[in-house]
Amino acid sequence: xxxxxEDKQNLRKQLIRRIALTAAIFLVPFACxxxxxxxxxxxxxxxxxxxxxxxxxxxFYGLCVSPFVAYAKYLREVTAGMSRSFQGGLLRxxxxxxxEGVRCRTLYFSDEEKExxxxxxxxxxxxxxDFSKDRTYRITVHGQxxxxxxxxxxxxxxxx
Length: 160
What we know:
2 domains; alpha+beta; single chain; 31% strand; 2 helices; 3-stranded antiparallel sheet; 4-stranded antiparallel sheet
């Protein structure tokens, strides 16, 4: 299995750290701004701090927190959903694409059960795996996302 409980725990820790960092970065200037606003009573200063603070919070969330949220959603989806398996060899690999907010390798496999048919699959870029075009694999997918890869010995059709 490519994804384990440890992956979920590591992701959760990173997400909590990022959210705490976001809160710390924006609460300290916000508190300083509140002190300045209450002591000097400048309306334009309150508007300026509010607009700049919200813009910075949205920017930081979009750049630093939302990729972790997208990956957590992806991880939850692929580990809890229904899966199916097929056997085949790698036909070609195309460029990296973003699928459901996650960077994935785009792979095309032949399907031994259905001769001449290609299967489009996506492999999470964080899970490196070296494919060879002369090997046969048993691929377990959820939708089009690869969740398990098993290399088969061509002579014995047995896991290597």
